[in-house]
What we know:
Elements: E1 4-8, H1 13-26, E2 31-35, H2 41-45, E3 49-54, H3 70-78, E4 87-93, H4 105-116, E5 120-121, E6 125-126, E7 138-139, E8 142-143, E9 146-148, H5 154-168
Parallel strand pairs: 1-2, 1-3, 3-4, 4-5, 4-9
Antiparallel strand pairs: 6-8, 7-8
Helix pairs in contact: 1-5
Amino acid sequence: MKKIGLFYGPLGGSTEKVAKKVVAALGFDNVDLIPVKTAKAADVEKYENVVFGLSTIGKETWQADKSANDWDVFLPEIEKINFANKAIAMFGLGDQISYGNHFVDAMGIVGEKIMKNGGEIVGHVATEGYDFGESLAVIDGKFLGLPVNEDFEPELTDERVKKWVKVIKPLFK
């Protein structure tokens, strides 16, 4: 398997914590852990296997006036990347209790741009076991990636990461 670029944001907090769990499950020698805050399109293009670790949007919408999130800053870079011949997996943090009608929407927003630029998203996850209203991350009845709720279900994270990595690891070239 070729090296995996795991791009995550923001630094510190739950997204970084889960990113490190994913790195451990994939194998430390297999992954470069890269904060999106300092990343550019060229950094992603170096990898055939990519994992994006997304935080909750952190504001009403991605189009709001103030960017409060590392992913807001990185989103224009995603639009520059040719994702053809890349395997892309995503995990997204969200709170299905407080934001049940926008649960892990960030995965849907980023996923749409990846697919528009020729990317194949691997590691879709069934919606069963998640209690939410709506999500932009659900396509054809499945999440585009792994939803994680560290606010209200942290006890489920390790098992969810372990199962998800078993699915995505063989799909990486």
